């Protein structure tokens, strides 16, 4: 494995992203290796999920790309060449999502794996769902264009080719050449100069089931992504606790004492660190169990009894009570609703 090219305290991007940039350069008739070599990135261009690029390096690379291609819309081109595999388990988990809302919530949870340059949040009401990106570094416009294009391409692949958002809000200014390529790529004319980037959709479309949904695949890649997130930011005690909870639940011994021991800290230290993050062991245990339960119930091969023990409950009645507290319904009724919806499709 090549050595990391980014310091631990720098915002970073998954290195596989550079492969898409290289493919876009080749598409434009440019020797990608020459451009990458000029900015010192040749050794970093791989799909190794543990390899990262500093966000500042990506900005430098994009400046070189725009200069050599003379294309102010180069980021839009890159968005056409980002492949699911370039973003590791996050891409495969997104592909297996049950709905586009599920897709957005999963992206919110794991976006730090893709990039630490922005924080993603999902906002929703009865009419709209907004996927917002709060920029935490000086993000270049090409990266904003590339990921916006990629996400819309990905959503259309999973849902409908004619699917478009209600609105697209971009942080960067509109190129002097005009917005037409954006309208062609997004299916709607974006607005520019916003504090954040945002994709805004009709709420109804976000709840439609996706034909490629696979609960087992989503669950599997969620677990990989959770572990990766914990490795990526070892100091993030929340991610580390979530990863430990997932591993410990099936054994039925997921206690704060045991978890603190596994993390090589006292219970008091664990409690303090989680409190500083605005959460607690019990909160994370409940949230993780809920997320896993929803995924397991979508897997027809698992009985409610099996799910009970996979989640570390001692009996089905305890699981049923917890599930009703989380969702307002029972595990059996929730599964029946999923089956009816699948049959209708």
Automatic annotation (TrEMBL):
InterPro entries per record: AraC-type_N, Homeodomain-like_sf, HTH_AraC, Tscrpt_reg_AraC-type_HTH
GO cellular component: cytosol
Residue ranges of every copy of the HTH araC/xylS-type domain listed in the record: 239-337
Keywords: DNA-binding, Transcription, Transcription regulation
A GO molecular-function annotation: transcription cis-regulatory region binding
Entries under PANTHER family matching the protein: HTH-TYPE TRANSCRIPTIONAL REGULATOR GADX, HTH-TYPE TRANSCRIPTIONAL REGULATOR VQSM
Protein name: AraC family transcriptional regulator
Species of origin: Burkholderia ubonensis subsp. mesacidophila
